[in-house]
Amino acid sequence: MGLFNRKTNESAVATLPVDPALAALTGDYSIDPAHSSIGFTVRHAMVTNVRGTFAEHEGALKLDGANPGASTATIDVKIASIDTGIGDRDGHLRSGDFFDAEQFPLMTFRSTEAAQLGGDKYRVTGDLTIKDVTKPLSIDLEFNGTATDVYGNERVGFEGSAEILRSEWGLTWNAALETGGVMVSDKVKLNFDISAIKNAA
């Protein structure tokens, strides 16, 4: 079931029938932080990966079944909630060497465009802001479907990822290794596992 229509001409859009199952998803949704995860993976010391998550985040989806390409997404992530499992490392990441969480407490994403890649795979493009830098980011997502949970909430689920060069957002700290190379890779993979609940009408 498609959530976002492919780019095409206006006359073709006007004649496309609306999928009733898709139309039923129309509405505003709130991301459920208790059942969602926003995290990252980065190469450390050239030989292994460090994984982390942001424990505190909130966001919203607006799904439009009649015009799926008009659907939107927003996410706000609290930088201070970063968790890699090691307190000293988390403190360093919150410091001015990296995120400077005290001065720039939020990382945000605001979608500007969405497109279907085929099947249940999509690409959502928008503006990612880290510190005082805003740059475009495309996130590849897979739509996991819908369900009504035991409390009667209507849910939709997505999972996906994107890659960034952290230096483009001003995250430039590093240290040289005696054996060559650097302590932290510039390339970072962002991971999204999203469950969103439909708001009451």
Summarize the structure.
The chain has 3 helices and 11 strands. By secondary structure, it is mainly beta. About 6% of the residues have low confidence.
Radius of gyration: 19 Å
In the sheet with the most strands, the strands line up as 1-4-5-7-8-9-10-11
The count of helical stretches stands at: 3
Low-confidence stretches: 4-16
Helix and strand content put the structural class at: mainly beta
State the distance separating the first and last CA atoms: 23 Å
The number of E-state strands comes to 11
Largest sheet properties: 8 strands, antiparallel, barrel
Order of helices and strands: HHEEEEEEHEEEEE
Q: Overall 3D geometry?
A: elongated
- Proportion of residues in extended strands: over 45%
- Report the average pLDDT across residues: 88
Helix content: under 10%
Could you explain the architecture of this structure?
By secondary structure, the protein is mostly beta strands. The protein is built from three helices and eleven strands; from the N terminus they run ααββββββαβββββ. The chain has helices at residues 10-15, 20-23, 87-94, and strands spanning 27-31, 37-44, 48-54, 57-63, 72-78, 82-83, 106-118, 121-130, 133-148, 154-165, 184-198. It has an eight-stranded antiparallel β-barrel. β4 and β5 form a beta hairpin. The two termini are 23 Å apart. Residues 4-16 have low confidence and may be disordered.
Which keywords apply here?
201 residues; mainly beta; 8-stranded antiparallel β-barrel
Draw up the topology in text.
Layout: H1 10-15, H2 20-23, E1 27-31, E2 37-44, E3 48-54, E4 57-63, E5 72-78, E6 82-83, H3 87-94, E7 106-118, E8 121-130, E9 133-148, E10 154-165, E11 184-198
Antiparallel strand pairs: 1-4, 1-11, 2-3, 2-11, 3-6, 4-5, 5-7, 7-8, 8-9, 9-10, 10-11
